[in-house]
Design a protein that fits this description.
The protein is globular. It has eleven helices and twelve strands. Strands 6-7-8-3-9-10-12-11 form an eight-stranded mixed beta sheet, sandwiched between helices. Strands 2-1-4-5 form a four-stranded antiparallel beta sheet. Bound molecules: iron/sulfur cluster. Iron/sulfur cluster binds next to loops. The site of iron/sulfur cluster has 14 residues, from loops.
Length: 317
């Protein structure tokens, strides 16, 4: 058995629309080692959240393999997938939208336990709900509160408690702190790190914000228009960003040191439509280094340094 808990191979999702196929995810490949975090970053609409939903089969892929412990879960029937989904969970960006406003915090956290019929005995289930609340840093007195009575940070803690209810191995964290104030973001990120250590969890952390992903990821994959353009260990990516798109994203991160002046790379033009992605390198319409070759040939996604993968013709020269 490999050390990877999850591997996606040639993952594709094309959504049929009236104007043709929307190429949301187009041949994405990566693997995640057990107990580690992979950050998946890119601008809004690049397909990163779709990747998260495909892994959990909340949206069905058009093609490709999703190997969970070396077994392709795309081949699972409904019942086997229902069983497996206990081990694969998701935390959404907006906890307010993902929680039922008519249910108390207790009821929301108890729901996955009831759906999967894990506890027959009411007392056992109550103890588990209170244990989950404590794990997520929620005071017991909040059990009878409703989502609208909590602040954003506490609501996200309820989302985390729900995701942990079925003892998962793997969590997709889809922009889990984007809707929170900066001070609360740090608390929730710390909680995620503590839980990973205590429970041996593996994360796919999806975010548009490289500075958030930096603090929690072991590896980072950068996505542009449905494809991964660069992937490396976190430190390596920040030290040697090699794809022009990654360089532009990094240049946009504010630096606290006033003596350290960083030149921001402004990308020209809008992100092209995934309905009709540009030929050759998909980034060529916005890349400051684009050459003729870039319009015609698709750059290969290659490992240029150990563990550092890039898709760019500049590195082939
Ligand atoms: Fe820019 Fe060409 Fe590299 Fe694409 S392949 S990122 S257009 S230099």
């Amino acid at each position: 058995m490999s050390e990877n808990i999850l591997e996606v191979r040639h993952l594709k999702k094309y959504f049929p629309t009236k104007r043709g196929l929307l190429h949301a995810v187009d041949d994405v490949n990566f693997s995640i080692k057990k107990g580690t975090t992979m950050g998946l970053v890119g601008e809004s609409g690049c397909g990163k959240s779709t990747v998260g939903r495909l892994i959990l089969r909340l949206t069905e892929a058009t093609d490709g393999e999703i190997l969970f412990y070396d077994d392709d879960i795309r081949k699972y029937d409904r019942e086997k997938m229902r069983h497996t989904r206990r081990r694969l969970q998701i935390v959404f960006q907006d906890p307010y939208a993902s929680l039922d406003g008519r249910k108390s915090i207790f009821e929301s956290i108890a729901e996955p336990l009831q759906v999967q019929k894990i506890y027959q005995n009411k007392k056992e289930m109550e103890e588990k709900v209170y244990e989950l609340m404590a794990t997520a840093g929620l005071a017991r007195r909040l059990a009878n509160s409703y989502p609208h009575e909590l602040d954003g940070g506490r609501r996200q803690r309820v989302g985390i408690a729900r995701a942990l209810a079925l003892n998962p191995d793997f969590l997709v964290l889809d922009e889990p702190v984007s809707a929170l104030d900066v001070s609360i973001q740090a608390q929730v990120l710390n909680l995620m790190e503590q839980l990973q250590e205590q429970m041996g969890l593996t994360y796919l952390f999806i975010s548009h914000d490289l500075s958030v992903v930096k603090h929690i990821s072991d590896e980072i994959a950068v996505m542009y228009l449905g494809q991964i353009v660069e992937k490396a260990e976190c430190k390596d990516l920040f030290k040697h960003p090699s794809h022009p798109y990654t360089q532009a994203l990094l240049s946009a991160i504010p630096v606290a040191d006033i003596h350290h002046k960083k030149k921001r790379i402004i990308l020209e033009g809008d992100v092209p439509s995934p309905m009709n992605p540009p030929s050759g390198c998909r980034f060529h319409t916005r890349c400051p280094y684009a050459m003729d070759k870039c319009k015609e040939c698709v750059p290969k996604f290659k490992e240029y340094e150990k563990g550092h993968w890039v898709a760019c013709h500049l590195l082939e020269q």
